[in-house]
Prior knowledge:
By secondary structure, the chain is α/β, with parallel strands linked by helices. It is 40% helix and 15% strand.
Amino acid sequence: MALSRTQSTFAPPVQEARRWLDGIQFPVDRALINVSQAAPATAPPLAMREAMAEILVSEPASHLYGPTLGLEALRTEVAAQWSTSYGADIAKGEVAITSGCNQAFAAAITSLCSAGDEVILPTPWYFNHKMWLDMSGVQSVSLPTDSSLLPDPEKARAFITPRTRAIVLVTPNNPAGVEYPSDLVGAFFELAQEHGIALIVDETYRDFDSRLGAPHDLFSRSNWQDTLIQLYSFSKAYRLTGHRVGAIVTSQARLAEVEKFLDTVTICPSQIGQRGALWGMQNLGQWLASERKEILIRRSAIETEFSQLAARGWKLLGLGAYFAYLKHPFPDKSDALAKRMVAEQSILCLPGTMFRPNGDPAAHGELRIAFANIDSDGIKTLFKRLEMMCG
C-alpha cells in the first residue's frame, strides 16, 4: 500500500524536540535554556497591540473575508518599502500576502511543480521546505555547501535536469545563519535565468542582516519577474508569529497561479494580522532598528564567548540572524547528543540530523542554536553549560 503524502515525510522537528522535555524536572538552579526554535517568544510591542485591539473593535471588515492575495494597503506598503530598500521599482500587483512564510513557500512550489519534478536545496536545509517538497511528491535535490556553508552555483549547474523547476536559497540562512554575498545570489539568479527555472529566495530574516543596504540587486535586474520568487515573514520582524502573516514577491502571472492555491487553503490571510503588519511597517521603523541592534549584540556575544568552546574542540560553522551553527567535538551523533544535553545541562537545541538528508555524515557533528530568546547574559550561561559538557 502506497504511503500517503504526509507519511512520505518526517515528523515536525521542533515538535519532536519538545517531546524530549516530557517528564523532566529541571533543577531550580539550572532552568531550561530553550534555543530550539527561531521565533520570538514575546508579544509585539504594546503600541502595536493597542492598535490591533482598536482595529478589532472599530473595523468590522477585519472580521470578514478579505482579498485572497491580501489587503491592498499592505501590498502597496510592501511594494513601496521594498522598492526603496532594494533600489528597484516593485509594483503592488507583484506582491501577495500569505498566512506565514511557510505558506508562501508552499504556494510557490505548488505553482511551479508537479509530482516527480525536482527542486534544488542547499544543505543544511530548512526542514519545512524539505517536508513540503516530500508531501508534494517533488524530489529534493541536495546541494552540499562548502566549509563556509555557502552553496556553489557551478556545482548546482551539474544537478539541473529537465525535471528541475527551482533552486531555493535562504539568506540570512536558516539553519546556518550565513549571509549569502550579493554576487553569489546574483550568480544563482543568472544560473536559474539561463535554464528557465525559478530562483526562490527566502528572506525571512532580512531585517536582521548585519550588512547595511540591499543584500542583493535582483529586483533591479531586467525581467526579474520571470525568475525570482522572494519570500518574507512579518513574524520575526514584528513578533506576529501567532497571526501568521508572510509575503511573496514575484510576477503577476505567477501570483495568478498562487491565488488558486491560497483561495483553496485559507481563502485569505488573517485580517487582524495583516492590519497589524501594516501598522508595524508604518510606525515601528525605529523599534525594528533597535530589535536588529539587539540581535547583532547577541551575535557579537556569541563570537566573544565562543573562544572557550573553540579551545575544547568546538567549531563555529555559521553565525547570523537568529542562528549559530556549531560542530561539536564528541563521539556522540548529534541527535543523541541533543537529547543528552536536555538531561545533563537543561539545554534544548536541534541536531544537524534535522537539517540534512538521511545518511549525510556531516549531520552527526552539527547542532543549531537559535538565540532569538536569550540575551547576552543567557548566551554566557549557555556557553558555560556547553563547556561543562566537555568535562
